[in-house]
Amino acid sequence: MKKEQSIYASTFTWSRDSHGLFDYESSHISKKLFKITENSKIVRAGNETHIQAHNSELANSSLLLSVNPIRYHAVINSAEQESLWLALRNYKSSSQPKTYTLKENDIIKLGRLKFRVCSLNNDLIEPITQEAINPENTENVCRICLCDTNEPNNPLISPCMCSGTMKYIHVLCLQKWISSKLSTKEGENSVIYCWKSMDCELCKQPFPTKVKSGRKTYEIFIAEGITTPYIVLEAMNKDHNSHRYLYLVSFMNKCIAVLGRGHDSDVRISDISVSRSHASIKYEGGNFLLEDNISKFGTLVKLEESYKLSYESELMLQVGRTLVEFSNKKRNLND
């Protein structure tokens, strides 16, 4: 006889709808427990969550996610209007704190603020040895210095949509031009770069934070002389003056950096939804590990639209103001 595959889903919904946040310290939390044995949807109506068959609808409800239990794992799919976020903080659980190994282009969320992982640098910078681009073509010139030199440590690159005589620019020329537009604030283990607009003045395309030429990647916004290991985060929420921010966090002098609103944080983030010591990034074994510091609104990592969960694993997701915990064990919601 075929064994029934099932998984438990515990939901916790904060009664207040505020920027899609979940308040771990609030006592106004609605709790539900579901056993899922077939293709199902978890929806929210008001402050209550409900389980539905895949082909049914509940009036005045919003879809949070769908679950498809199959032979070896359950497939969790996001709703069209909602993203799946991995929650690093446990909700009233004695489980060990979760850590997440960061990857380039990951989106993380501290409180209501989002950050993109622009760059992870964990190796000592070696001399550049690759060939410069278009070595046979001597007609290409830098639009800033008007020179046609194309050296291994300062190649001509094409960082925007410009063409013709305006297509190419030296890496160092672009870095110097951008540095003239930046304001910086240096701390003991971090540098904050601030700018309002960093678009090409001709084609209006925003310059990337880094470009690739041959096998070498060049940091465009980062000053020379930065020693690895370091990580670069880009704030995705512009401030009221439309400024943008890059945070460079160095691990040369210490193996852990604290992100938060407190004055002693390595990366200070001035937003009321960010706790004083909100999260930490640890450099360990060549990896950058993100961990929540028991923050009020949690630390999240954006997941793909679909996630495969083995039946032996546990997973805590956040969808808007609702936490959804998946487990193969029935949880006591009164804990």
Automatic annotation (TrEMBL):
> What CDD domains is this protein classified in?
FHA, RING_CH-C4HC3_MARCH
InterPro entries named in the record: FHA_dom, SMAD_FHA_dom_sf, Znf_RING-CH, Znf_RING/FYVE/PHD
Among SUPFAM superfamilies, the record links this protein to: RING/U-box, SMAD/FHA domain
What range(s) does the FHA domain occupy? Answer: 257-301
Zinc as UniProt keyword: yes
Outline the extent of the RING-CH-type domain: 134-210
Ranges annotated as spanning the membrane: none
Q: Which UniProt keywords apply?
A: Metal-binding, Zinc, Zinc-finger
An example Gene Ontology molecular-function term? zinc ion binding
PROSITE patterns recorded for this chain? FHA_DOMAIN, ZF_RING_CH
Alphabetical list of Pfam families matching this protein: FHA, RINGv
Looking at the keywords, is Zinc-finger present?
yes
Question: Under which name does UniProt file this protein?
Answer: FHA domain-containing protein
Species of provenance: Blepharisma stoltei
